[in-house]
Design brief:
By secondary structure, the chain is of the alpha/beta class. It is 33% helix and 17% strand. The protein has 4 helices and 7 strands; from the N terminus they run αβββαβαββαβ. β4, α3 and β5 form a beta-alpha-beta unit. The chain is elongated, with a radius of gyration of 24 Å. The N and C termini lie far apart (88 Å).
Amino acid sequence: MIKTEEPGKNKRGKLRLLGVYAAAALVFWCYWENFRGSGKNRQREDAAVSSSEEGGKETVKGETMAYRRITQEEAREKMNTEEGLVILDVRTREEYESGHIRGAVCLPNEEITEEPEELPDKSQTILVYCRSGNRSRQAAEKLAAFGYENVCEFGGILDWPYAEMLE
């Protein structure tokens, strides 16, 4: 007995396979968009990241906010040369007490729910750091959204290479 296919069965299989490929392409595209940072990842709902022209520094912008990401080397240079800046440690008080950058002020990220009284001058340079870089980004976003004009985020103390500046 010779087996024959039903009419249209092969066509349905091809359409099903095409659907699988399309779904896989869509999943890959969504992953790629999030990986590149153009999606709503890294807890930046309305923010977009762009490189500024000065040395490839990143500026994170939204409708009402802007802060700069700087390297730890740039942060150290600012600490050594600029007067009147604030070094803001946004870790918990316990983390702060276990060791921090000399001269830093502790204001835990979780406590930044409104304009901080500790930071009355919105045009003052504020250097923000935490343990690994996540909370400092969140805090920098909040401060920028409150209208602080000169917020620079430089990541976490885990990567801080200048032991002589720690206390």
